[in-house]
Amino acid sequence: MSIQATGNLDGGLTHPVARNPLRTRDDVQEALTQLLEPLNKRYSEGRARLILERSGADAYADIAEMEGFSRVLWGLVPAVAGGSHGDLWELSLQGIRSGTDPTHAEYWGKVNDYDQRLVEMALFGLAFALIPDRIWQPLNEKERSNLYQWLDQINYHPCHDCNWLFFHVFVNVGFLKAGLPYDAEQLENNLQRIEEFYLEAGWYSDGIGGHSDYYVPYAFHFYGLIYAQLMGEEDPERAGRYRERAALFARDFVHWFAPDGAAVPYGRSLTYRFAQSAFWSAAAYAGLEGFRPGELKGLILRNLRWWFQQPIFDRDGVLTIGYAYPNRIMSENYNAAGSVYWSLKTFLILALPDEHPFWTAEEQELPETGDISVQEQAHLVFCRDQQTGHVAAFNTGHPSTNEHTHTSAKYEKFVYSTAFAFSVPRAEWGLAQGAYDSMLALSEGDRLFRVKRLCEETWIQEHVLYSQWKPWRDVEVRTWIAAGLPWHIRIHRISTGRMLDAAEGGFALGLGSLNSSMAGEGAASASGTFGTSAIYGMLGYDTAELIYPHANTNLLRPRTVIPTLMAALEPGTHWLISAVHGDPGPYVVEEPSMVAVTKGLGVEIGQREIEITTQTGKVIVIPMD
């Protein structure tokens, strides 16, 4: 079969998987075939490398090609365990023979400390546990020795002190399950260290002081649930603990998903796309209690359907780097062409047999959730508009940061949304290059803007979020957000020792066909195909503009408009208050009643103080002196 993929960013990509109904186990098996078939001609002669592109002949290109080979197996190994895709596995087994043979031209090589190849070894541990008869038994004595020796390198090289520790764990669990020598001390040390990353209520941080993002569901809990299923007899106490934590986490994580299958884009590594639902696949695989099989089925299949309606493939049907369309601007330094196939972790459900309740159950809609979910460990408050299905995650920000690409955009915006996603900067000069949606951007008049990167203090009280941050040593910003949908309110107290220009961005609206737009003294709005975005100045702003950011800054739409409020600030203390509207419905926002908006969010703005009443009646008083 030859896949022909054509299309455009507005109409979606014509790819066979987009027409797959994704209702039955056969459909999901076929979806995996549809995703893998375009790769068949991209393997090297020895099939140990997946050659999707090559920008140079350096050593890292070879590692990236090995990474692509390995990541395909996250989907293929469960499928083989479930009794399908045997022909593709035989070709991959040839690649394993070549890649682990020190005398072969495509040998994967000796690894170094913190090497990317250590990441890719984890999958082989899973294969040893799930399909030993397909990965170990077919090899002769020399080939078995080659594979074991290549994988055992992980026990002599450290991994990064974060979710990477599970890669050691998986390799050694695989050895154990295959009856091979394994490093029991290394296994236990890593498992104990992972315990130190646990916060509470089911949440981990990605290393000490790290963020809590999608690496919690599609790394920590994904690996933890597989470990619990595989090691329940050998390590029952830890397996039970992993299940309990995952069940707690699931109650929060369900709030990240909209009824149409979209999930809130937040944090790094979003190019892994439908790995968003890998946690639910692991929950089904491990028989996690708390959600019915039909609910898990719906969460996974709706997410896959949503993704397969996005133009995420190139003309040959190969997954691209990006989010809802090909977009390298949003990617991280570690994203190679094959990296994106980590998304295939969601196909773990193919390891479940035909008669499993997951496959026999009728798909069910999202479990009922409330309008708000406070998730303090992640520094997030989720709001859901029950009428439109729009989900938004309001964010305090974090006391620490990292060196990954676009950290401020991915972790420090005031709100992240299923309907509007978020934007990353093209460069640092000007509002159009910076694409400062859902942010307060500050400049010294030179159009070089600074935004929140880390916070000195944060707290959450029900639907109210607070952060204190310092973009310069002599500039302190205190921010309060009254979260809600379609409206929310932002309050800033800015104490500055220098003159500043301030720009407050609303949601980034995909251009599509605009029905109406306006910008004036105190407000800016735009409405069209993809909904409505508006921002209204309630105190302290001078004027408003519609900012048209540079192309490919937004994760969801390549061209957007950001309604933005502007203010010029002299040295001293200033208060800026705005009401921000975001709704995916295609209609024009009429001039709102700010009294109704503030009353609905429990905000009362006086001359000397601001009062915010939470949903349980608690009053938060903000003095304005």
Give a structural overview.
- By secondary structure, the protein is α+β, with helices and mostly antiparallel strands.
- It has a domain at 372-623: Beta-galactosidase, Chain A, domain 5, CATH 2.70.98.
- The chain contains 16 helices and 23 strands.
- The protein has helices spanning 25-36, 59-81, 86-99, 116-130, 132-135, 141-152, 165-177, 184-195, 215-230, 236-253, 278-286, 293-308, 357-360, 407-411, 431-434, 594-600, and strands spanning 6-8, 12-14, 372-375, 380-384, 391-395, 415-417, 440-443, 449-450, 457-461, 464-472, 475-482, 487-496, 500-505, 509-510, 514-519, 523-528, 531-539, 543-547, 560-569, 572-583, 603-605, 609-613, 619-623.
- The chain has an 8-stranded antiparallel sheet, covered by helices on one side. Strands 7, 8, 13, 14, 18 and 19 form a 6-stranded antiparallel sheet that branches.
- Strand 10 and strand 11 (475-482) form a beta hairpin.
- Helix 2 runs antiparallel to helix 3 and helix 9 packs parallel to helix 11.
- It is elongated and about 80 Å long.
- The model is unreliable at 1-12 (pLDDT under 50).
Q: Report the sheet with the most strands, covering strand number, pairing sense and barrel closure.
A: 8 strands, antiparallel
Radius of gyration: 25 Å
- The level of helicity is 25-40%
Q: What's the pLDDT, averaged over the residues?
A: 94
